Each structure stands twice: as structure tokens, then as C-alpha cells.
Amino acid sequence: MQESAAFTPQFAASAITGILWLIPAVPMAASGVIALLKQPRRKLAASLAIGSLSISLLLSLVAFCHVVAGWAHGAVVREVVDFTWFRFGSSAVDLGWVLDPLAAIMMLMVSFVGLLIFIYSVGYMAHDENFTRFFCFLSLFAGAMLGVVISNSLLLLFMCWEIVGLTSYLLIGFWYQKPSAAAAAKKAFITTRVGDVFFLLGIVWLFAQTGTLLFYNHGVGSLEGLALVNLLAQHAGLGLSAAGAIGLLIFAGAVGKSGQLPLHVWLPDAMEGPTPVSALIHAATMVAAGVYLVARVYPLMQIGAAPHGTTVALTVVTWVGAYTAVFAALIAVAQNDIKRILAYSTISQLGYMMAGLGLGGVAVGMFHLITHAFFKALLFMGAGSVIHGSHEEQDIRRMGGLKADMPLTFITYAIGMLALCGFPLLFSGFWSKDGILEAAQHWDISKVPFYLLVFGALLTAFYMTRQVCYVFFGHARGHGSAHESPRVMTLPLAILAFFAIALGVIGTPAWPWFRAFLENRATSFSWHGFTEPGLGLLMLLSSLVVFLGLGLGWRLYGNKSPKPEAPDALERSAPWLWVPLRDRLYVDEIYGVTVIAFYAWWARVADWLDRRIWGGIVAAVAWLFGLWARFNRFLDVNWVDGGFDKTCEEFSSGGGLLSSVEGGRVQNYLRILAAAVVALVAILLWSSRP
Amino acid sequence: MTGMTTPLAGYLLVAALLFAIGLAGALVRRNAILVLIGIELMLNAANLNLIAFWRYGPRPELLTGMMFAIFSIAVAAAEAAVGLGLVIAIHRHTNTTELDKINRLKG
């Protein structure tokens, strides 16, 4: 809980840090190029996207190795490159990027999982006519997400954060011809915007207090010594320091992005997007950006905590996370759409991550984020494979028996499902979730989060068993026979499945490499990690809970293959529980009669004001001006025009008179000539008289 | 010179009369040819003046007035040819020599 003290910041930009900006820039540039391509250039678009992300992955790997090497030698742990964007008055807005263990791990995960999903998308979207547009958005997303990860400035992070939100909107509404997809895209955009308003407030407050938005800047960044002390000294009410209050405002942004209560409603609807999008954005990376953000500004929340103590801000994070974990898991039990179940599961797991951050610190939450990213991407891509194989069917009641038809998908899906449930010892999810449960167990304030999270684990095992039973076991209830997906889709599944198992190794109590790396401590392998007091008991309890969930699920749903129209097994035994869960605990409906109804009423009021009050004022002003204009017109017609017309007339008639002299009759000219000569002679005579 | 009974004023009077007749003809006649004839009359009135002034001038032996008149007659002949040519050209265009009807050059 006190890693900020453990950090000994050393600032020296190495070569890799200098070119770190390339990691987000390359996919963004690729996105720009793809946007300029003609629609049918599918192969080029896909290769550009995959190639650019491969470059990012390579650079991330180099950066990661650089950080690991520095850490192993006890040398550099954090390098920053800052520059001034613009100045106004005496203030300057600085941007920059940072390379530290947190960013290194996150960027490696994002580019790796992202690359696998890109490859998978080539197969999944093969028949879509807007293939190039899809890869354009996907690349832009990857670039922006990597930008969020490496940002050393809250402002730069916010900008990338918003681009990420934009691409999320674009990709949820990718099939915009479907009204439901268009509505879901809008819902996602607007709901996350609610959180972002608070986020922006937090940014402005932080800037007002510290005069900088850089996280780390050689000791004067906003997350470093002096700034934190100053922020801590100011009270913002409700027992919060300014640091805690700003942290909570930023956390509100994370609540929107990461689908925490009460802003989780957009995430299930976001499943209207193509499945690779669900895997990439709405399971593995973007929704995790909120968790990453909280981890990034963790010093703000943590400052002021006693050793092994906590702060108000972290307590709030914990409670929100714990409630979200159970709330979403409950709803997931009674959903029938394969992707919706996974969506609620994602919300629930994000709750775990938040609770992990609040309870145990950055490493606990981030470890679950990383492991979850792999197995949830795996599950979503498995679900995509299932949907693809069973002719775009998403209702799990109309699947069944796919175990035989899609063996590779089944095996990988089962691995992902067991990892998500936290099947003991073998799977990464077990270790990351146990880390959170262990932290919850030791929490001083209340034991309730611990019970909530254990209950959530039970539910997780239960609903995943239900889903797998429906989809893969029993006999086929769908239309047509299912087929296995092409190699380009199953290969990423296999790779992710490997990591869903293997990643656990770096976070076991015996070898807490991940935690030590993030907290910049030395570590070594030792079996004594398991002998900590209470740990064995906790692992036993957690295992029992998982087995209980799996067993219950199997008992209710295993190999039954009920008819699609038949009521669910749980519906038969406990309809009072089933109906509210099936209706998603009425959150959407509550929003419908409160927030949305209020907005509709407010819109009507505004409309009435607009028409009656403002409209009336505008009409009155218009009438006045009309009057004035008529007066002006009167002056114009009668005075100005009168004088002008008269002048014109005079010129015209004078011209006519003169032109009548030039009559074209030669004898008239002659007459005038003669008269003139006579006159001339007369004048001469007159003037020469004596 | 002997036998110079007629005074200068007599010639000038005749010349003035001739000029006035010519001018009147040029002004009132509608036929272009008759207008030309009027102009010729005015020219010849001028010639008469030239001769008269030479004859009654200080150096009648120098023949200057005669030369001047002969030049003037030659120029008048050329002018008459040009004038008649113009009249013919106009006649071909408009089928008339009535000056009242030739008024296309009005402003």
C-alpha cells in the first residue's frame, strides 16, 4: 500500500523512452492511411493495421525489457519525456510520456491482445463490406489506447481517452443500419460522457491547485512530493483532502469508462458492435482504461493514508467496485444472449479490479486487469467463433452440442471460462482473484466487501457454467449445423488460451513477480509465500466456492438441453429471483423514469420557453425592426429616391435635347454652320466698329 | 489700268449674291445633286472674289489671284467628282437622293 514511498524516482531518458511516442503514433498513422484507401483494398487495410500494431508490439516489448532490465539492476524505474505544448500568461500546459513498470506492462498487454484481435478480425469480418472502415477505426482505437497508457500528462491522457471513447462509439455503431446498434452507440457515448464531465472537473481542479498536469516531472509533477503534500493540506469537506476529492472526480471518469455502478448501463448494449470490438474494446482494453487511470493517479488517492491504512477516496473505490462485482454477476445469471452474459461478467470483473485497487493497491488491481484482459478477450473471441459457426445466432438457448462441432473453440472457451471462474491453481484468474480476496480479508474497515467478492466468485462460476452448458453441451437446438471457424480465428484463441493459463505464474504468492515489479522491490521464488497465515485457508475457501458454483451450474443445466421456449431451470425453481435478474434489476427502467423522464420534461420546458418566452421576445424585436425598416423605406422612397430620380430625369432630358441636334440631317448641320458664320461675321463687325 | 469703270464693290456684290444663292440652294434643296450645285455656286462666288481682289489689288501684274482661282477651280472639280461619287454610292444603298431620308447618322 505504500509503493509511492518505495519508488526512488530516477529520471533519465533512454533511447527507447525517446521514441516511445511511436507506439501510439504508428497505429494512428496507419488509421489515417487506411481512411484514405479505397473501399475494396481489404488486404492492404488489414496488413497496414496488423503491421502497424506489430511495430507497436515490438517497441512495447523493447520498452518492457528495458524497464525490466533497469528494475533487475535496481536502476531506472521511471523515465519521462516532457515538453511544453503552449503557454498562456505565466502558466504552461505541458505534455509528455512516461515509461515505468505500470505503463510497460499495460502497453505490452494492449498491443499484444490487440494484435491477436486484429488477426482474428480478418477472419471474423471477412464478409463485411466495410472491412477497410473497420480496420481504420480499430487502428485508431489501438493508437489512442496506447496513447492513454504512455501519457505522462493528465491532459494528454484525457485527449486520448476521448479518442478512445469516440472509436468505441464508432465501432459499437459500426453496423449503423441496425437501429439498436445506433442507439447503443449513442447510449455508450452519452453515458461515459457523464463520467468524463467529472473527470474534466478533476483535471481543472488539479491544474488550479498544482499548476501542472504532468504526473511526473523531476519532482515537481502533480503526483510527486510537494504537490501531493500541498493537496493533502487542503480540505475539501466530507473528510476528504483536495487530493482525495480530485482523485474521486477522476475516478468518476473511470466509473463511466469502466462500467461501474451506476454508469454500467451502456456496456451490455455495447455488445451490438462486431464481436472483435467487444473483445478488444469492451472487455480487454478500453474498459480497463478506467482501472488503469485509477492506478495511474493512485498517489492522489493514497496520500495521507497511515501505514496499512486507507483513505476515504480508496474506501469509495472499494465499495463501488465490490457492489458492482456482485450486482453485475447477479444479472449475468439470468441473461440469454451469449455476449450479454460476457458483458455483465466484464462489468463484474472490472468491479473486482476496482475493489482490488481500493483494497490492495495498484499491483493487486492491475494483475487482475492483465489476466482478465487475456481470458476475457479469449471468451469474447470464442463467443464470436460460436456466433460465426452457428449462423449469427446469439441466443444460448438456441445453441447446444457445439462441443463436437467446434472442438477447438470448445477447448479454448473452456480454458477461458475456468480462468474467469478462478479454477484453483492452474489458471491465472485464480491467482489474480485470490490476490483481491486476500486484500479484502485484511481490510480494516469492514469485512462486507470480502463477503461480497466471495459471493461474486460463486455467481461467476455459476453463470459461466450455465452458459457453457447451454452452448456446448446437450444436443443441438439451433438451425443448420455448426462449423468450426477458420484458422485465422482459432489461432489467436489458442495463443490467448495459453496465456490464460500461463500468466498465473507471475503472480503466485510463491513468486509475486508482478507485484514486486510494479512496486519496484526485489523478489525471488520461495515456497514460503504459501505459508502466510490465513492464506491456505483463503485458497481453500475460494476453491470451495468455485467448485460449489460449478457444481450448482452443472446440476441445474448440465447436459439437459431444454427446449428454447421452455422456462429456464432457475426460473422454474425461483421465479421471484429470476424475473428481476432477467430484467437487469430494472436499472434501465429506473433511469427511464428518473433521469430520462426528467430530461424529457426539461426538454419540454425548454421547448415551451423557446417558443413562448424567447420566441415572443424575438418576435417583438423583429416587429420593432420591421417598423423601423418601414420608416426607412418611406424616407428612401419619398426623399432620397425623389431627389435622385429628378436628377436622373434632368440628365436624361438634357441628353435628349442635345441628341436632337445630331439629327443626322446634313442640311441641318449646314444651317447651323451658316448661322454660326453669320453670327461670327456679325460679332467681328460689331467688335471692329470704330 | 484704263477703262476700269466698274468699281470693286460691284464685283463683290455679284459674288455675294452668287454666294447667297448658292447657300440658299444648299440649304433648302432636298435633292443631293442640287445641294452640290449650290455648293459649286458658293465656290465660284469665292473664285469671283479672288479675281476681283487680285484685279483691284496693289500688284495686278503678278497673276497671283489668277493662279489661286485656277487652283480653286481644279480643287472644285475634284470635289465635285468626289461629291457625285458619294451621291451615287448613297443612291445605290438607299435608292434615293433625298437628303431628308438619309439620316442614319443621327446621335
Outline the structure in words.
- Chain A is mostly helical and 690 residues long.
- Helices cover 71% and strands 3% of the residues of chain A.
- Chain A has helices at residues 3-6, 15-18, 22-36, 42-72, 101-124, 131-150, 154-172, 179-210, 225-233, 242-257, 266-269, 275-284, 286-296, 298-302, 312-333, 338-360, 362-389, 402-405, 407-421, 428-441, 448-472, 487-502, 513-518, 535-557, 569-573, 575-582, 587-661, 666-687, and strands at residues 79-88, 91-99, 235-237, 240-241.
- In chain A, the strands form two sheets. A two-stranded antiparallel ribbon of chain A has the order 1-2. Chain A has a two-stranded antiparallel sheet with strand order 3-4.
- In chain A, a hairpin with a 2-residue loop joins strand 3 and strand 4 (240-241).
- In chain A, helix 20 packs antiparallel against helix 21.
- The longest helix of chain A is centred in the C-terminal third of the chain and has 75 residues, at 587-661.
- The N and C termini of chain A lie far apart (134 Å).
- Chain B is mainly α and 107 residues long.
- Chain B has one domain (10-94): Helix Hairpins (Orthogonal Bundle), CATH 1.10.287.
- Chain B has three helices and no strands.
- Chain B has helices spanning 8-28, 32-55, 64-94.
- In chain B, helix 1 (8-28) runs antiparallel to helix 2 (32-55) and helix 2 packs antiparallel against helix 3.
- Chain B is elongated and about 50 Å long.
- The model of chain B has no long low-confidence stretch (mean pLDDT 87).
- The interface between A and B is medium-sized, with 12 and 13 residues.
